[in-house]
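=== RUN LOG ===
request id: a7f3
mode: sequence -> structure
chains: 1
length: 241
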Amino acid sequence: MSAASSPAAPAPAIQSVERAARMLGLFTVDEPQLTLADLTARMQMSKATVHRYATALRSAGLLRFAGGFYTLGPRVVELASAALAGLAVMKIAGPYLERLVATTNETAVLSVWDGEAPVVVRVDDNTNRLVRIIVATGSRLPLDSAQGQVFRAFLEFDAADADLQRVREERLAHYAAVVDGIAALAAPVFQGAEPVATIALVGTTSSIEAGSDSTMARALSDAAENLSTELGFIEPERKQP
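=== RESULT ===
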């Protein structure tokens, strides 16, 4: 019997895809423009290799170059739109967010998990308000944000973390430190055993209450639960004491 062979190195084509995806992932809402030097430093490859990948991505419409800076290209927008269209929650969440805005007079935000952080995919607010809180779609939110806490409580649950355990039990998370004076209250939306999205209400620290028994919290929880039900989620039977 021959000895077991060691794991094969990634095929060149697969490695190229991984590197291209990693390069595209360097662009964020906070840093939408990067120079070749930025890309080279972060990819930790030679300048010539990075330039070759950047040129190929430009040819595919995934990157563009102007004024010495690279940015994501128009093809990325098309792919992002197609990806979001494929999410069932995106197709049916609209009325729930609109009703929340009408009920609470606060900004309603839908976010999904991108594998590392919550990403805002839809925002509804009251356009008649004199002062409005603007949340940009495409924004990646911190892990300690209300939305981040919800995802972490169910996707990376640590029983030793009392705060995440409370979020898991109450299905609500509150946070008021991402931006000074602004707070958020978030609830999970389920399609299976794990949350597929979060719905959050965003407002001032004086208008977003932290408790789970407030009228606002109940409205948010009801919206998240009803949306989950429409997505086909069936609440597991709770064990009798």
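=== NOTES ===
The first strand starts at residue 63 and ends at 66.
The beta strands are 63-66, 69-72, 107-113, 118-124, 173-175, 182-190, 195-204.
=== END ===
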